[in-house]
Design a protein that fits this description.
The chain is mainly alpha-helical. The protein contains 3 helices and no strands. 64% of the residues lie in helices and 0% in strands. The protein is flat, with a radius of gyration of 20 Å. The N and C termini lie far apart (75 Å). 0% of the residues are buried.
Length: 85
């Protein structure tokens, strides 16, 4: 006899839109090595709040660093070209 089992999965995805100033600030924060960032954060702010989100923070640093740099570099090049003419 066939049996079908299911398990619903709830997943949240958020698209974040930011302006250039915000993107540059985020890139600056993410330019730190994650281990150094966490060490300093935990030392100064404590572990109580962020430690439970450390996996997500590591993922955010890993997945966001390169795309931010690429888009900000394109913005810089576009500004250079625009301002030369």
């Amino acid at each position: 006899m066939a049996r079908i089992c299911g398990r619903p999965i709830v997943e949240l995805k958020i698209a974040l839109e930011m302006n250039e100033e915000e993107a540059r600030a985020l890139e600056c924060i993410m330019s730190y090595d994650i281990e150094s960032f966490l060490k300093i954060f935990y030392f100064n702010m404590g572990k109580a709040y962020l430690e439970k989100h450390e996996k997500g923070l590591r993922s955010l640093f890993e997945t966001s660093r390169q795309p931010l740099s690429i888009w900000l570099s394109k913005a810089d090049k576009s500004k250079e070209l625009f301002n030369e003419k």
